[in-house]
Amino acid sequence: MPSAVHISLNVSDLSKSVEFYRGFFGEPRKRKADYAKFVNADPEIHLALQPGLESPTAGPLSHLGIRVESSDEVRRWRSDLKERGVVSEEEKREDCCYALQDKFWLTDPDGNRWEVYTVLADTDDTAREAQAACCTK
Fold it and tell me: What CATH architecture does domain 4-135 belong to?
């Protein structure tokens, strides 16, 4: 799979949001009671939706990401960013968003979270608590 931009949004009503994005991008690639993911080829986009706007401090943007083809690419991205002086968190393997991933995180000056990641395997029974911990740091 080629590199692709990933956007994760907090939504107030997952069902209504899924219906809207179903009309915009077609059927979701993944649909769980607490999660939906749309993968579109033209334009190449990976859009994840999860409940999260019930908190008065949460905005609609959960995080942004770049999906790459392999763990080697994750390491290359991290090395290239380090050479350019961009600080990132340690690389790790974690179960997040119903998938086992190799990734690292970085945060821009305004607090926007980015992940560079590859998906190693889809998982269907990931606990929502584990997902929330990985995606909202």
Answer: Roll (3.10)
